[in-house]
Design the sequence.
């Protein structure tokens, strides 16, 4: 699969990956950039780094949209960057990161070596409701709208580009995950997100 960046706003990019049907995001400011989610292993993260470097050589800040392995197992490759996430994202990674790895190895034994090399690194910068990051002169708003796909979903809003990254609150072209993975009782989290992130 040819995984190319798509520019969806001024210097705002999305890259859709065949692995776990995952979208990663890239927001480029003046002298700095933001990477949204780091994929499911160090190998995949290195591929993402190479892809980011086709767009920009700027240093980065990382945001994890939530605490499922495919969104943060690559964090270590982006160090020493600041890594942002919801406070419960950190709690769940610290409590469940190793069990997520073990369950994944059991399901995908052919990936054992790739997964065993992962150093689990939770976010080191957290918030509970809202935070705003200055990414090279561009403001990126991080918001948590309550229980959704997980207990700690983060939405990233880029107001000057009219772009919202919603993580797995919205999954294009896939059937909804089971109740064990999706705690939403319906579209309420997305309605709160839409109301809280105006287009400009």
Sequence:
């Amino acid at each position: 699969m040819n995984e190319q960046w798509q520019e969806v706003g001024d210097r705002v990019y999305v890259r859709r990956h065949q692995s776990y049907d995952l979208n990663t995001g890239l927001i480029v400011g003046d002298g700095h950039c933001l990477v949204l989610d780091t994929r499911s292993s160090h190998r995949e993260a290195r591929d993402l780094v190479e892809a980011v470097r086709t767009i920009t050589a700027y240093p980065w800040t990382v945001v994890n949209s939530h605490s499922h392995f495919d969104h943060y197992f690559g964090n270590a490759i982006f160090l020493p960057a600041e890594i942002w996430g919801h406070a419960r994202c950190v709690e769940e990674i610290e409590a469940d990161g190793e069990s997520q790895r073990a369950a994944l190895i059991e399901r995908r034994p052919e990936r054992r070596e790739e997964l065993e090399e992962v150093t689990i690194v939770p976010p080191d910068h957290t918030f509970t409701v809202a935070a705003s990051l200055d990414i090279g002169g561009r403001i990126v708003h991080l918001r948590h709208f309550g229980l959704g796909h997980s207990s700690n979903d983060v939405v990233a809003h880029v107001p000057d580009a009219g772009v919202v990254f919603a993580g797995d609150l919205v999954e294009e072209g896939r059937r909804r995950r089971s109740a064990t993975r999706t705690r939403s009782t319906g579209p309420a989290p997305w309605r709160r997100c839409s109301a809280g992130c105006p287009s400009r």
